[in-house]
Amino acid sequence: MEEEMEKKRFGVLLCAEDSELVRKKYGGYFGVFVRMLAEEGERWDVYRVARGEFPDDDELALYNGFVITGSCNDAHGNDPWIHQLLSLLQKLNSINKKVLGICFGHQILGRALGGKVCRSPSGWDIGIRTINLSSSSSLKLPSKLSIIECHRDEIWELPPKAEVIAWSEKTGIEMFRYGDHIMGIQGHPEYTKDILFHLIDRLTQHNFIHQDFAMESRLKVAMWEPDKDSWKRICVSFLKGPL
Predict the structure, then answer these.
(1) End-to-end CA distance of the chain
(2) Catalytic residue among 150, 151, 190, 235
(3) Which stretches make up the Glutamine amidotransferase domain (predicted)?
(4) Domain ranges of the chain
(5) β-pair partners for 130
């Protein structure tokens, strides 16, 4: 029992339904995040928040940190589970719990802290994008990194205490920090190219993007590689580093 208590414990707040490819190949999006972030001796739990599964308030102190995943829902939406998630994130902020938000997770964190999220005026960003990173961050970031992107919403405005730590030609807030305990990343450090190709196909099938845009995106993705190892180091360093 004592050994169990000493284990680092993390929770994934799963905001998406697993596609067939991701479920069969990676054990779902939870498996994708565990593959990137988990280390031996840790406990990782999943809460399917898009289905209304949330940790109880008295469980929050048991966790070293939480990760919020991407989603096909809008972070500026008003579904009941989104409002419940906003309330949870405000509680986690109030107790200085480590929280890492990815894509939708990045956006919903911005909203929970008082920022504004909206549709990007320049439309979808799908592919592998080079982003610029701030040299002033305590994370000791490189000046540029490539990351997989798949979004049409973005954080338009952050609260005054938040610090923008990365940006690109397409999106003004690619990453932000809020204190030492909250970080958002607009791109997908956890994605592999096959996950992105599968998403492009699904977006095309459901008429979210046009066939020609999809073809162009696939060709560009095939030409570049994301800096996955660097992103893994950044995410692990933030989530498991000291406050």
Answers:
(1) 26
(2) 190
(3) 34-192
(4) 9-240
(5) 146
The structure tokens 């979210």 sit at 208
Q: How far apart are CA 128 and CA 217, in angstroms?
A: 9
Answer yes or no: 216 catalytic.
no
Tell me, yes or no, if 188 is annotated catalytic.
Answer: yes
Contact between 94 and 57 (Cβ < 8 Å): no
Burial 206-222 (b: 16+ CB within 10 A, else e): eebbeeebbeebbeebe
Say which residue the tokens 């909206």 belong to. 118
The answer to whether 174 and 187 have CB atoms below 8 angstroms apart is yes
- Rounded to two decimals, the pTM is 0.94
- CATH 3.40.50.880 assigned to domain 9-240? The reply is yes
Give pLDDT tens digits for 73-113. 999 999 999 999 999 999 999 999 999 999 999 999 999 99
Say which of 15, 103, 150, 235 is annotated catalytic: 103
Give me the DSSP letters along 137-195: STT---SEEEEEEEESEEEEE--TTEEEEEE-SS-S-SEEEETTTEEEESSBTT--HHH
Strand-pair partners of 155: 117
